[in-house]
Amino acid sequence: MKYLQGEAHALPGHRTALAGYAARHFLFAVEDGVATVTLNRPERKNPLTFDSYAELRDLFRALATADDVKAVVIAGAGSDFCSGGDVHEIIGPLTRLDMPGLLTFTRMTGDVVKAIRACPQPVIAAVDGVCAGAGAMLALASDIRYGTERSKTAFLFTRVGLAGCDMGACALLPRVIGQGRAAELLYTGRSMSGAEGERWGFFNALHAPEDVQAAACTLAQSLAAGPTFAHGMTKKMLQQEWNMGVDEAIEAEAQAQAICMATNDFHRAYHAFVAKRRPEFEGD
After folding, report:
1. 3-state SS, one letter per residue, for the chain
2. How far apart are CA 220 and CA 71, in angstroms?
């Protein structure tokens, strides 16, 4: 079994550009500071393979040093987002692995979620149609999710005899939609409709299928034009403060905001306000 090693890593302390990155197992493009990751096996509802898991992990890790990417959109080609792990290319081979091999795989898939959450750029998922298993976890790991009326999100691990606690689902899903709702979805593996997902807070908004990716890109472009260093700080604090008490969180935010006040973007915003013009942020 091959676990792909990333091509876009930089040495510690060095910055990189990802605009020329040639993805092997999905489509990848960077335009005006927005990177778009498109899962591209529409004839199979865009399932993941061992190699696409690994490449996603490596790509999102590389975003930590990418100067040219300010926001990220994840989407699926065609009318579906992602059907999860490929039955023939993943599920079947997993039945033949020993325990060390199984643990290597499950840790790698969890590392995809860790990498999405750890990269400083806001990540927006554009979810249409099927969003199942590991696909649902890619959406859940994102910062913001747009869906459609026909979105069907299912954490269907129990349907294949597994626990619902996969890739961080038991930690992340209750924080997004609540403990009881998460428990029902993780125990039953049933699909959550688009309307239900919006009502429960899984989706930030619903759009027409033909508009959902464009809406995600519009939001991503807006964020990319903003104070991106500060956005990275916001994302970091959103993750870190889950494990803090309120007093510790207030102190952490005091330190984080003081750092942001030392940036050039903060000074640009002040001078633009005085001059009665819109600030032009540069992310430094």
Report:
1. CCCCCCCCCCCCCCCECCCCCCCCCCEEEEECCEEEEEECCHHHCCCECHHHHHHHHHHHHHHHHECCCCEEEEEECCCCCECCECHHHHHHHHCCCCHHHHHHHHHHHHHHHHHHHHCCCCEEEECCCEEECHHHHHHHHCCEEEECCCCEEECHHHHHCCCCCCCCHHHHHHHHHCHHHHHHHHHHCCEEEHHHHHHHCCCCEECCCCCHHHHHHHHHHHHHCCCHHHHHHHHHHHHHHHHCCHHHHHHHHHHHHHHHHCCHHHHHHHHHHHCCCCCCCCCC
2. 5
Integer distance in angstroms from the first to the last C-alpha of the chain? 42
- Residue 2 above 80 pLDDT? no
The residues pairing with 28 across neighbouring beta strands, listed in sequence order, are: 37
pLDDT tens digits, one per residue of 225-253:
999 999 999 999 999 999 999 999 999 99
Query: Per residue in 102-135, pLDDT tens?
Result: 999 999 999 999 999 999 999 999 999 999 999 9
CB 148, CB 207: distance < 8 Å: yes
Per-residue pLDDT tens for 73-91?
999 999 999 999 888 888 8
